[in-house]
Each structure stands twice: as structure tokens, then as C-alpha cells.
Amino acid sequence: MNFFLSTDLVIGVNEALNLQDHLSQMAVKKPGIIYDAKVTGSLYFQDVLKNLTSGYSNSVVYCNEFGGEPTYAHLENVAEFFRSNPPDVIVAIGGGSTLDLGKGVALLMTNSVPALSLKGFPTGVNDPLPLVTVPTLLGSGAEVSFNAVFIDEAEGRKLGINSKKNFPKKAIIDPQLSMTAPMESVIASAMDSLVHCVDSFGSIKHTALSRIFSIEGFQRTFYALQQNQLDRAESRLDLAIGSVCGTIALMNSGDGPTNGFAYYLGVKHRVPHGLAGAIFLKEVMRYNHLQGYEKYALLNPMRSSPSPREATDELLEEMDQLYHQLQIPTLTPYGYGKGNAAEFAHNASEALKGSFSGNPVEFTEESARTVVFQLT
Predict the structure, then answer these.
(1) CATH class of segment(s) 8-178
(2) Which terminus of the chain has fewer Cβ atoms in its 10 Å neighbourhood, N or C?
(3) Domain-by-domain residue ranges, the chain?
(4) pLDDT digit string (tens) for 328-360?
(5) 8 A C-beta contact, residue 294 and residue 308
């Protein structure tokens, strides 16, 4: 068994106001700050940024206004901005895309190569600048992962820069920073956590230790969503812990069909990754259950039946109710019906064989077609 996590993690309400202290402990002299334009209107974020820049008057600050997940071209442009006035640490404040941008910039600051040359799983690269991540949405887990998603526009694919050198040195998770985010973004991000937890739980590469994180992450996130009180700091803390647990589990196991479907739909129709995953999650679980996979019962803390099959049935019923409560869509709003469902399943299968291979039961193009048909 192998298990890894390389990020110093701090979680607490109002903890972002102490960013200057955390950087001082790291002996930072000149921070480069990348923040998400979407949080600019938050008074709390303004206080966080003011506290940080007043302590470091030489800060190099960049507002990330790029819509959606970053491209390699955008990464290249932002890296050039910081190369003209080099910092000694990168602080990324924002959603998953901005945190991934921070990872890419930190790596390019010490590697004078085109961003596209690092796509995939680069080897032989120099250590990046230290990176501090401060998420403003809770669910992607980008704050503690080494993966960074970038889109190759020429190929129309998400490839990313995936190196264990990308691990942030420190993650400061402050639920207060997420309180002004649109509720649909909060829900989509939380659903991303559920996908990470379920995919990692069922992955054929899971371990006994990774499953502890999968289960804890799922239960905290699912409960917070069920309670429908996401405007409370306590619920946001559950989302924060669920996000970290799900991502740690995913890094130490592997993904599955849901994450694969989400990547395909997200690129093709610019659907936020968390929402794209949510669309498929329940039906992938149902498919596996109907094929005899009964271990999802372990994800259900309130199971009243001793039978794993019945306990999984209960969990899927609760998920049906949650999907209705959260108004999670099907594929129909994105132009898919019975007439083109098979085409979608075929294209997704061709593009995502790696993700499909991680499923706990055999998952083929015919399996994909079964799932997609349920969503049209």
C-alpha cells in the first residue's frame, strides 16, 4: 500500500486573514498573488487582500479574469506577467481553475519552456516556486492536489500538467471566502466532491486507507447537501473537509467513469466540471449496483438494512431525492436525446478508456450507452 499527501493544511473560519503570518513563517520576501476576478466584490476577500498586501507592499498582483478552465495559452501569458517582476512564492486565491493556474505559473517560473511542453505528465522538470492555495469554493480539491487542468485548444482536450512537484506547500481553507459565491457554484463544487469520493471508493486501485477518506468525504458532503443549510459556516466546514478527503482519496486510488464523462461533457459543452460529474454520478452508481456491486452500502451511514443490496438501494433513493432537491439536470438541456445518445456514448468511450477501466465492474461502450440512455 502506498499513500501520500504533501501539503501543510490549515482549516478555520477567518484563517485567510492570517495569510501574512503564514507567509512570514515560510520566510517569504515577495509574494506573487493570483486571485479570481469572481471574488472581487466580496468585502471579506477585500479585507484578506488588503491585509496581505499591506504586509507585503512589494506584492505582485494578478487578477484572473479568464472565464472557465484555463488554456495553456492563458497560462503562458500569466507566467510572462510574473517573469517580468519575479516573486519568491505564488499565492493563488480562487476556485479550482485559479488554483490550477497558480500551479502552472509556479512551475513555469523555474522552467523556461513553453507551457504546452509540460502537458500530461512531465518529467525532468525543476522544482517550482512554493505555492500557497486559498480556495474560494469547496469541492474541487485543487488546494491539496498535484493535478492541474489546462485545455489544449488545438486538440479540444483537457490534458493538464500533472506532476507531484505541483503539490502546494500550504493550503489555507477559510469557509468565509466561499460565503458570497453563487449557490449554483457552491452546489456544483460540492457535487464534484461526491464524484471524487465515489469514483475513488469504487476504483479498482483503491486501498483500505484511501477508502477511509472516500467514506468520510462522501458522508460529510452528502449530509451537508441534504440539510440544505449551506449558508451556515458549519455546513461550509463540512464541505471543506469533504473536499480535502475526496481529493486525497482520488490521488491515492484513481478515478472512474463519472469523472471521465464529466471531462468529455465539460470540454464539449463548457459545462462546469462539478455539474458535469453530478449529471452522471447517480446513474453510474445505479449501473454498478444493477451489475451486482453492493459495496456502496458502506457510504450510507444511516442504513437501516443489514443487507448491502438493500442499504445501497436506500442510498440511491436518498440520492434521487437529493438530485430533485438540488435540481441536477439530465443531458437533455445540452441537446441529447434517444436519437444521439449512442453517439455520445461512443465518443466518450473512445476518449476516456482510462477512466472507464477504473470502474469496479467492467464498463464498456455498451455500459456507457446504458447510462447515457437513462439521462436522455
Answers:
(1) alpha beta
(2) N
(3) 8-178, 183-374
(4) 999 999 999 999 999 999 888 887 777 888 999
(5) yes
For residue 121, what is its C-alpha cell? 505528465
CATH class of 183-374: mainly alpha
Distance CA 250, CA 242 (A): 12
